[in-house]
Amino acid sequence: MRSTFSANASDAHAMSQAQSVKNEATPLVHRHFKIYKPYTCLSQFKPENRRTKMVLGDLTDFPAGTMAIGRLDKDSEGLLLLTTDGKVSERVRSKSVEKEYWVQLDGDIDAVAMAKLQNGVEIGVDGGKYLTLPCKAYKIEGEPDLPAPARKPRDLRHGPLSWASITISEGKNRQIRKMTAAVGFPTLRLVRVRIGDIRIDAMQPGDVIELEHAPHN
């Protein structure tokens, strides 16, 4: 006849094994979202010292551990991906995933300036000079299908405006703005419309959509 101690130890071992099998059978399920980051919203969840701007956590009640994949600066808007999986974040931020932006420019951009953008231009990064990688860029004829701007566009009496699509695979700080300024056409409005094969579609500022699958598996 086995002792009570031995029986208890065996039962505890069996329960431990069962729990281990259960844990292996039910891995952590990560969640992923795409949002339309509004103009002036900060790409962070915690407010700065003084709460003056909207943050991502104001859009909806995201699960614990949610992080923004990359960022859009305060004055930019459009597609931003969020995830609870750090590996997904690293994969999407890599140079293998394209990011497309539609930019409204001060002036009517010409073919010469567009070619410079396509071939790479010199911009300032971290106090030094950096030559951007070749990219895809073309002029958008007319007004693109986007939500109404959060601020009134510049008066056309002060000169023409134009739109361009610029697709890059890198992400230096304020890179698109620096690139268009380098060719003589400052950016007035910047909207990210695509990350890899995920598009902004008909989303409106502040919209949040949960994705069924991790971005770019």
UniProtKB/TrEMBL annotation:
InterPro entries given in the database record: PsdUridine_s_RsuA/RluB/E/F_cat, PsdUridine_synth_cat_dom_sf, PsdUridine_synth_RsuA/RluA, PsdUridine_synth_RsuA/RluB/E/F, PsdUridine_synth_RsuA/RluB_CS, RsuA_PseudoU_synthase, TruA/RsuA/RluB/E/F_N
Domain Pseudouridine synthase RsuA/RluA-like: 35-182
Top EC group: isomerase
E.C. no: 5.4.99.-
Key words, A-Z: Isomerase
Keyword Chloroplast attached: no
Classification via PROSITE patterns: PSI_RSU
Top-level taxon in the UniProt lineage: Bacteria
Family matches, as Pfam families: PseudoU_synth_2
Family recorded in the similarity comment: Belongs to the pseudouridine synthase RsuA family.
NCBIfam families in UniProt: pseudouridine synthase
Name of the protein in its database record: Pseudouridine synthase
Originating species: Ferrimonas pelagia
